């Protein structure tokens, strides 16, 4: 089966945080710009924890190791891992795996990370690998659907949802639905093996509950300290082929909080009609297969590609210079021979026209090819906080979507 990586940022509602966590602030941390998307979640409360559920074969939880950090412990499914030390002398190391595991079975897993000290513990982003399809050589497609697609049904009526929510310019395609109606809900019908739902989070965000195929309802919250558009609100995979439905219900509150939906991404082995955007990912394109497992580690692949690109550009430049020098040297020799020949025969030498070679803008840009990093599979799915990457290895995310972005809990039927 083709596999791919999904990366979500620390603020994604799919991650559950206990009491005692907060967003990192630039006012009290000068290194915040070195974290993915210049943001992280942090606690210094002993016993504070986070949990995340996923369907997949591998996972990595990334954060910082710094001098004011302490011990933490991870529990994966029913197995308690040995305690780990997050302390590291200045300047410390950021965007490193606090925990990673590979070669899990493709099934539902739950991971919990707990702070064991009164020292600090922070999380930057989470990346996991999942599979789509039944065959190793299957292609799979990320089909993106706008909120206006007929596959969305807004209840009780369309009139209970505003079609021009606040910050509409930050929505994909400038289109979205929002509501403060305590009776509001939506149903999304789709065909595919997995689905992701995207929308904004922020100080005015509400809680909401989601179920797939009329299964167990799970509650999430879009109420976060900072506004972030196109965040991963919900993800489910390993649903199996065929028709499925997702039901989302606004959770009533007394503060007139808002829930908004931006778009959906459906993962399937076929293209789906009426999608806004369809992205094809195959084994040849780097999605990989179960026989190509990678080791989760620090996300360095973008730097490797940059080094390779620069090396190729330098090699091309050296080869071109050598060829030009050889041609120039031979030309000078020919001029000398013609000069001697004309002095001896009185024949006028044919003048040589010299032309200078200048790289075109396209060639120049090619030689300066740079790799830009940004949590995809937005990404392929269009999110700046949730990002999809190939299973050549886990990469750090760009905050958007981005993003396979932008966390936790998935129901047992996903």
Helices, strands, pairings?
Layout: E1 3-9, E2 16-17, E3 22-23, E4 41-43, E5 49-56, E6 58-65, E7 71-76, E8 79-80, E9 84-85, E10 93-101, E11 107-115, E12 121-123, E13 125-131, E14 140-146, E15 152-155, E16 177-179, E17 185-191, E18 194-201, E19 207-212, E20 218-221, E21 228-236, E22 243-250, E23 259-261, E24 263-268, E25 277-281, H1 301-345, H2 361-367, H3 377-380, E26 388-390
Antiparallel strand pairs: 1-13, 1-26, 2-5, 3-4, 4-12, 5-11, 6-10, 6-13, 7-8, 7-9, 7-11, 14-24, 14-25, 15-17, 16-23, 17-22, 18-21, 18-24, 19-20, 19-22
Organism: Collybia nuda
Protein name: Transmembrane protein
Keywords: Membrane, Transmembrane, Transmembrane helix
Brief account:
With 414 residues, the chain is mainly beta. It is 14% helix and 34% strand. The chain is built from 3 helices and 26 strands.
């Amino acid at each position: 089966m083709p596999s791919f990586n999904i990366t979500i940022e620390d603020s994604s509602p799919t991650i559950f945080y206990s009491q005692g966590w907060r967003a990192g602030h630039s006012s009290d941390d000068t290194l915040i710009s070195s974290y993915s998307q210049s943001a992280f979640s942090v606690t210094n409360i002993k016993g504070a924890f986070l949990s995340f559920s996923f369907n997949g074969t591998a996972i990595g939880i990334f954060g910082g190791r710094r001098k004011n950090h302490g011990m933490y412990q991870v529990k994966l499914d029913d197995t308690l891992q040995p305690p780990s030390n997050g302390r590291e002398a200045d300047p410390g190391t950021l965007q490193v795996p606090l925990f990673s595991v590979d070669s899990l079975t493709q099934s539902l897993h739950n991971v919990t990370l707990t702070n064991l000290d009164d020292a600090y513990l922070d999380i930057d982003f989470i990346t996991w690998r999942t599979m789509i399809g039944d065959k190793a050589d299957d292609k799979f497609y990320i089909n993106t659907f706008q909120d206006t697609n007929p596959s969305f049904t807004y209840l009780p009526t369309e009139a209970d949802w505003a079609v021009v929510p606040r910050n509409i310019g930050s929505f994909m395609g400038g289109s979205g639905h929002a509501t403060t109606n305590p009776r509001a809900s939506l149903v999304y019908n789709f065909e595919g093996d997995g689905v992701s739902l995207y929308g904004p989070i922020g100080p005015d965000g509400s809680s909401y509950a989601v179920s797939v195929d009329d299964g167990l309802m799970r509650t999430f919250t879009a109420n976060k300290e900072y506004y972030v558009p196109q965040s991963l609100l919900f993800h489910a995979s390993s649903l199996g082929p065929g028709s499925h439905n997702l039901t989302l219900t606004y959770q009533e509150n007394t503060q007139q909080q808002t829930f908004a939906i931006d778009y959906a991404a459906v993962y399937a082995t076929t293209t789906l009609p009426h999608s806004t955007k369809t992205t094809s990912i195959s084994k040849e394109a780097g999605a990989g297969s179960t026989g190509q497992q990678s080791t989760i580690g620090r996300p360095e692949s973008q730097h490797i590609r940059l080094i390779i690109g620069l090396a190729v550009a330098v090699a091309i430049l050296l080869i071109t210079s050598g060829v030009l020098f050889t041609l120039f040297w031979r030309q000078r020799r020919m001029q000398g021979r013609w000069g001697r020949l004309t002095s001896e025969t009185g024949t006028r030498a044919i003048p040589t026209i010299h032309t200078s070679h200048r790289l075109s803008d396209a060639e120049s840009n090619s030689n300066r090819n740079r790799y830009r990093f940004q949590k995809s599979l937005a990404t392929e799915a269009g999110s700046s906080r949730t990002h999809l990457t190939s299973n050549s290895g886990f990469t750090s995310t760009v905050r958007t979507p981005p993003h396979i972005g932008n966390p936790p809990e998935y129901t047992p039927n996903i």
